[in-house]
Structures are given as C-alpha cells and as structure tokens.
C-alpha cells in the first residue's frame, strides 16, 4: 500500500521536475489524488524537494485547500459569502450538519461525505449556493437539503 | 502549427465571419448559443445544452450550429440561450427549462417563429458606448431587431450598461481563439507591437485615466511607468502578474472574465509586456474557480500555438510567455505581497511595503501586478484610444466598472456601468428594486474591507472618491444589496468572522484585534452586549486601522465602523432591548404559532411539526400547533415552511 502511494507521489513530483517553487501545485495534486495529505507523503515531498519538513507542514496547514485528515468521497461545500449569508446560508449549513449528523469540517463515518464551509464560490447571483463535488447548486434552502444529500447518496 | 503573421490574423477574422455569421446564403441557417458560465451551469444550462445536442443530432439538423459562450450577465434569469436565424437579429431566451427549450426548438429553430413568451430581448447590448460595434461577428450592419420582442438595449437591466471589460459577454466561445480574433481580438497587440513605442503605450494608458480595478484604484499608467523605469538587479527579467485571486465574497466579475473571455486578459498582458519590458508573467487564479483555470490554460495553449505567446511574437521580436498559478484557498493571497509569496511557493503572508513590487516583486525583480478587470480593459484602450476611454466616467474615475449586483435585489448579475452612475440607477433601474416589496436598507461594497452605505445615500454617484467618503470603498466590485430583513449588526459580525478567520496571524493587531472585535459583536448578537461595547469597538477599530501590517487588517474594522456610523440604532436595540429588529439574530427571536391562523387557514397542516429540527412543535394534523419554547433551537424552519403565515417571529 505504502509503496503504491510513494510511487504515485514520485510521479507527481517528476511531473514538476521536483521544482521546489512548485511545492504548492505538487501538494494540490497530492491532495486531489488521496483526498488528504498523508504524513509519510509530506516527508517524501520534503526530502525530494530539499525543503524542510517544517516548511511543508506550514504550507499544508496554512492553505485551506489542504487537509491532514481524509476527506469524504463527496465533498460538500456550503458557500458563506456575503450574498449567501444575507439569503440564509447559515441556516442551510446547520441543516446539512443535522442531515449528515456531523459538524462542519467533519467527514461522515462511512467516508461518503465531508462538510465544509467555503468563502464565496463566486456564484452570488444564485445565492444561497452549495457545491457537491464540482457541481454547483443554486437557490438552495433548508427544505432542499435532504433531497440533495439523498440524490448524491444513491 | 505554423506561427501566425499579422496578415494571418486578418484572414482568421474574415474566415470566421464567413464560417459562423448567420447571414443568408451562409452555411448555417441558425446559430444556437448556450450561455455556459459557472452560474448558467448551476442553474441548469448543461441540461439545456444536452437536450439541444440530442435533438439536433436526432433530427439531422445539419444547418444548425450549436455553440456555447460564457456568462450572459443576468444571473437571476439563467439558464439563457441566444438564437440567431440567418439574416435576423438574435433573440435571447431566459429562465429556460427543458419543456421551454423543446418549444423553442420546434417553433423558432425549426419553423422560424419566435416564442415571444420566453424571449427576454432581441438585438445586442451596447459595447463600449457604441451600439453593436462588432457584435454578430461580421455583419457590418447588423439586422434590425424584431419588432415583436423588446430590444435588449432598451431592457432596464441592460439599458444603462456600457460593456468594455465585458465587451465579448455572451458572444464568443471562450474555448475558440478564432472567435475572439474575429471580434477585433489581438488588434491591440498588433498595434502595440508594430506601431507604438513602449513609451507611447505607457503614455496612452496614463492618458486614459485607467485606475486599478482590484479595489485600491492606483493609476495604472503610473504603475507601469514605475515598473518600466525600475532597475532590475543583475539585469534580470521583469515580471507581470494578473491578480485573479478574487476573494471578496460577493464579487465574481474576475471569474466571469477569465471563464468567458480569457484572451482579453492575455492580450492586455502582452501589451503590458511590450510596454514594461517583461519577459514572463503569471495569472494567479483562485482554487475555487476550476472552470476559469481550465479556460485560461486552454486559451494560453491556443495563443502559444498561434505564436501570440512565446518567442518572437508575430515576428516582432518580442519574447513573452504566461503561465497559470492556482491559489490554494487563502483570502490574504489577494494582497499583492502575499500573492507574490504564494507564486514563489511560500506561505501566503504579506510583508511590509515599501519596497513595493514595482521595485522588488517576484524573486526580488520589478513586478507589475494588475487585477483581471484592469488587464481586460487594456486592449480596448489601445484599440480605441485613450481619449475615447477618458470620455467615459467622471473627472477622477474614468471608464466603466463591473459590479456584481447580488443579495436582496430582483435582477442579480454582472453589471458594467460608466463611473459616475448613481446608486439609485443601479438599485432601482438596473437591479429592478427589492424583491417582495421589501424596503431597501443598505448596499455593501468593497467586501470585508468596505462598508455599508445606507438608503439615505441612494443618490451617491459611484466613483473611487465618493465611495471612500461614504466610509466604504470601491473594492473589487461586489455590491450586496440588503433589505429591511437584514440585520446590520449581524452583517458586521459576519465580516469580522470572515477577516478573523482569514487573518494570516503574522501581525498582532489583526490576529488579536479582530478576534476581540468578533467576540464583542457575537456577544451583542446573542443579547449579552453591554452599553460600553460600542465605545470599546470604536477604540479597537481605530488601533487596528493604524497598526495592522497589510490591507486586510487595516480595513477589517470598516464594516463595523460604517454600520456604527449609519445604523447605531440597531446596535442599541440589541444591547438595550435585547431585540434584533430584523429578526436575524436568532438567539433573540421567539417563534410562536398563531393558533387561529394555523387552524383556520392551514387546517393544522402539520408541515411545521414534520420539518422541526428539535421536535419542539406540538400538535396533531387538523389541530392548531404550538411551539415548545424549552425545546426550540430557533432554526426558523417552521417559519420558512409555513404557507399560511401562521408562524410568527418576535
């Protein structure tokens, strides 16, 4: 298992010619591949790019795109931008929490969904908005949440 | 692929006109253009596209061209399709659904009869203050609009708009460089590279009066001049950067431009490279904008294939190339020094200025950073001249500004308006007023760095100075409309929670100060505010403003200061009376059910009880219902789902 992971990370590193300047892009590709940044991988990146592990870790914890815990197969992002906020997004987020039985930032026990709040997906004209994976759903409300979760569960 | 010459560009212009122009005798009888921006897709445009594709194939309609373009501007009426029949003006259809598009297919595409009831308008929007200069790629004199459908440029939402940065909105396929070229694309590059000295280009931009559209409004010509004249250590290269880290919540014009018209930005940057003497550039795009990243990467490939990027561009001897850098989700990276650090692969933390990036930017070299919308304005200025651009707008703010008009407003969308327009025109004419007959309360501009402008200032003319005087700022162009149901204390708390969350933590005033302000605001919205809180907020705000390191911290108190300035009464109601006048601060709300209304009108429909999040509603079907206050978590679902107005909030 570990070997496979190492191999995949090596492939990603070589795509960027192990360029330390591309460390953020490399971590993004790794995040996309594994849905989180596994600790052994961070060591591998640090060694290969000759960047101190502390710096890799600081990048991994500074940027919102990275996660040190595995994310769900389907990631739900509820937009909390201004337009969404004034149109009731906080209530929608709470409804998702109740529907999934998890808090914002957590992943369901079966690894299916993770729930996160996001600062504006730039689709304000259709507020409030939630993204499931890369699908953007506009004009949602508390009453539409259960149906949405069900649709993606199926 | 052979590199293009200048003549080659002209050939593409002619060829594309013949290929796609909906003129009689041309290869296509009808052109169907689906608007597929992120907003359109979210509203269902992909389904519309799929239906059309399947039907056109099934029926073998080989004389119908199905194409797509980006955002059409009016988000609230997505999905939209523009249909052009050879020899006739285009018709824009809005708020489409599957049955509607099938009806349009039968009647308009096949039989040529406009479906009036679904049509939004006909004809073209005004581009650059001149009607339909090159719209309808190719037809020198566009056909007159259809008399049975309102003219697009007479519809209130479009009427006062002047498209410069958004000049290609809804007209071209962003994935096809030829369509951009056909609408006078890359003309500015030809002019700048063959007919203008770098000096002349910088002068032209300075004369146009263009100012940074990212928010601060620094004159672009002066910035270019600074970078051009800056000495680069050891003669190293200079860089250009496009700031597409559009983090302000409520603003999405940069996303729309990058998605729908990426070449306008690329062309602006090539002109900039010639003027400044830069060898390379970066387009930094937010991670949250996957479609924009894809569109720009594709556009860069096509420009490179044509020799518009790379070595010896169009045989003029200019070497310049661009690459995309993807953000990783940090609001502070919109700040220029943090953005540069992020491009270099470091932590996106700001550093003190000076030195400004114009002297010491990427890898210590002179770097010119402009926002997406600023770059997109450049080609239009070079093609039409500084004088034309400076003729639009006010004394100090020239040209147009794109705003994203969102929140509690009927027509949501992107609006590009001349500087100097009044807030009233934007809200009531373009925006069509407030939904549900509610009262307009305020407009929030400038994102977390801006402020709320109250209804008393509705006749304010919009430019950089007037917005700053009102206590807000231009910012990147988010315009969030708030009505009587919006609580201004909650809005202030919202922005502080935003900046507190996004504070990078490097300097103390921002890290600790915003946290303290947020705590006070949270306390007030929960009914635990004390009379001293307002004074404390004001003192904290002024020290943070004076001492924070970067723009994020320095401007973080603005939303609190403007709401205190214009809506102090609301703060006092929360603190003294423990009431939220707009019923937004839920800890202060009490939900009750009017038993009479519940029974008489709703016949005890039971919908509230079934939707209640905490089993706090008692009652059987056909009986009046009741809220158990001890169990109620104040989620407000009952209020939302009741169809009879029986649930009351006090």
What does this structure look like?
The complex is a heterodimer of chains A (154) and B (650). Chain A contains seven helices and four strands; from the N terminus they run ααααβααβββα. By secondary structure, chain A is of the alpha+beta class. In chain A, strands 2-1-3-4 form a four-stranded mixed sheet, covered by helices on one side. In chain A, a hairpin with a 2-residue loop joins strand 3 (130-132) and strand 4 (135-137). The longest helix of chain A is centred in the N-terminal third of the chain and has 14 residues, at 2-15. Chain B has five domains: 17-155, Glutaredoxin (3-Layer(aba) Sandwich), CATH 3.40.30; 177-388, Rossmann fold (3-Layer(aba) Sandwich); 400-483, Ubiquitin-like (UB roll), CATH 3.10.20.600; 488-576, de novo design (two linked rop proteins), CATH 1.20.1440; 589-649, Alpha-Beta Plaits (2-Layer Sandwich). Chain B is 39% helix and 15% strand. Chain B contains 26 helices and 21 strands. In chain B, helix 3 crosses helix 4 (98-110), helix 10 packs across helix 11 and helix 11 (262-276) crosses helix 14 (372-384). Mean pLDDT of chain B is 92; it is low at 129-141. At the A-B interface, helix 2, helix 4, helix 5, helix 6 and strand 4 of A face helix 2, strand 13, strand 17, helix 18 and helix 26 of B.
């Amino acid at each position: 298992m570990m070997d496979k992971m190492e191999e995949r990370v090596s492939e990603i590193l070589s795509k960027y010619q192990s360029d330390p300047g591309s460390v953020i892009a490399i971590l993004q590709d790794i995040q996309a591949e594994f849905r989180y940044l596994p600790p052994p991988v961070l060591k591998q990146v640090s060694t290969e790019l000759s960047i101190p592990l502390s710096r890799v870790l600081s990048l991994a914890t500074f940027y919102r795109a990275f996660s040190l815990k595995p994310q769900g197969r389907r990631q739900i992002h509820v937009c909390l931008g201004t337009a969404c906020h004034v149109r009731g997004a906080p209530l929608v987020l709470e409804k998702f929490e109740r529907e999934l039985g998890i808090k914002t930032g957590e992943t369901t026990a079966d690894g299916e969904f993770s729930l996160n709040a996001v600062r504006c997906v730039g689709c304000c004209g259709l507020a409030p908005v939630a993204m499931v994976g890369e699908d953007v759903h506009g004009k949602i409300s508390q009453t539409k949440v259960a149906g949405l979760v069900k649709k993606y569960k199926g | 692929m052979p590199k293009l010459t200048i003549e080659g560009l002209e050939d593409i212009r002619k060829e594309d006109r013949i290929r796609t122009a909906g003129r009689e005798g041309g290869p296509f009888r009808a052109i169907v253009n689906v608007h597929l921006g992120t907003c359109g897709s979210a509203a269902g445009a992909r389904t519309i596209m799929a239906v059309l594709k399947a039907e056109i194939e099934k029926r073998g309609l080989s004389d119908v061209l199905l194409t797509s373009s980006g955002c059409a501007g009016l988000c609230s009426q997505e999905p939209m399709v523009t249909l052009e029949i050879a020899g006739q003006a285009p018709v824009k259809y809005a708020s489409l659904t599957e049955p509607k598009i099938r009806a349009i297919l039968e009647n308009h595409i096949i039989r040529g009869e406009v479906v009036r009831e679904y049509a939004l308008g006909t004809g073209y929007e005004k581009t650059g203050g001149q009607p339909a200069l090159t719209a309808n790629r190719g037809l020198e004199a566009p056909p007159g609009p259809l008399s049975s459908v309102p003219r697009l440029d007479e519809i209130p939402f479009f009427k006062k708009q002047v498209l410069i940065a958004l000049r290609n909105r809804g007209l071209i396929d962003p994935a096809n460089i030829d369509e951009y070229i056909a609408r006078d694309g890359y003309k500015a590059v030809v002019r700048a590279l063959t007919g203008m000295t770098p000096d002349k280009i910088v002068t032209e931009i300075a004369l146009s009066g263009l100012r940074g559209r990212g928010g601060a409004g620094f004159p672009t010509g002066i910035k270019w001049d600074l970078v051009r004249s800056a000495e680069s250590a050891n003669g190293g290269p200079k860089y250009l950067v496009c700031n597409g880290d559009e983090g302000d919540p409520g603003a999405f014009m940069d996303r729309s431009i990058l998605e729908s018209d990426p070449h306008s930005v690329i062309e602006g940057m090539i002109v900039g490279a010639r003027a400044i003497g830069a060898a390379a550039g970066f387009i930094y795009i937010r991670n949250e904008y996957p479609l924009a990243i894809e569109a720009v990467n594709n556009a860069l490939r096509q420009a490179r294939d044509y020799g518009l990027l790379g070595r010896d561009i169009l045989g003029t001897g200019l070497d310049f190339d661009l690459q995309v850098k993807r953000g990783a989700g940090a609001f502070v990276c919109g700040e220029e020094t943090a953005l540069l650090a992020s491009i270099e692969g470091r932590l996106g933390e700001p550093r003190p200025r000076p030195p400004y990036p114009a002297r010491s930017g990427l890898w210590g070299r002179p770097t010119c950073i402009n926002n997406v919308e600023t770059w997109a304005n450049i080609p239009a200025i070079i093609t039409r001249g500084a004088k034309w651009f400076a003729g639009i707008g006010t004394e100090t703010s020239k040209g147009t500004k794109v705003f994203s008009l969102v929140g509690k407003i009927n027509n949501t969308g992107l609006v590009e308006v001349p500087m100097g327009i009044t807030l009233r025109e934007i809200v009531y004419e373009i925006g069509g007023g407030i939904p549900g007959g509610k009262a307009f309360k305020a407009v929030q501009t400038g994102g977390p760095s801006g402020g709320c402008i109250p209804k008393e200032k509705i006749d304010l003319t919009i430019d950089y100075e007037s917005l700053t005087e009102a206590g807000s700022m231009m910012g990147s162009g988010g315009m969030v409309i708030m009505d009587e149901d919006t609580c201004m204390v909650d809005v202030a708390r919202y922005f502080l929670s935003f900046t507190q969350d996004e504070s990078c933590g490097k300097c103390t005033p921002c890290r600790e100060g915003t946290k303290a302000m947020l705590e006070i605001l949270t306390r007030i919205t929960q009914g635990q505010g004390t009379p001293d809180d307002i004074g404390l907020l004001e003192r904290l705000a002024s020290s943070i403003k004076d001492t924070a390191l970067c723009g994020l911290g320095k401007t973080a108190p603005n939303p609190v200061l403007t709401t205190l300035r214009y809506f102090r009464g609301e703060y006092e109601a929360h603190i003294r009376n423990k009431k939220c006048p707009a019923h937004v601060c839920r800890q202060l709300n009490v939900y009750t059910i009017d038993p009479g209304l519940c029974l008489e009108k709703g016949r005890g429909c039971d919908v509230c009880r079934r939707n209640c999040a905490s089993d706090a509603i008692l009652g059987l079907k056909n009986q009046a219902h009741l809220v158990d206050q001890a169990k109620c978590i104040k989620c407000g679902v009952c209020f939302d789902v009741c169809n009879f107005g029986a649930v009351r909030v006090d």
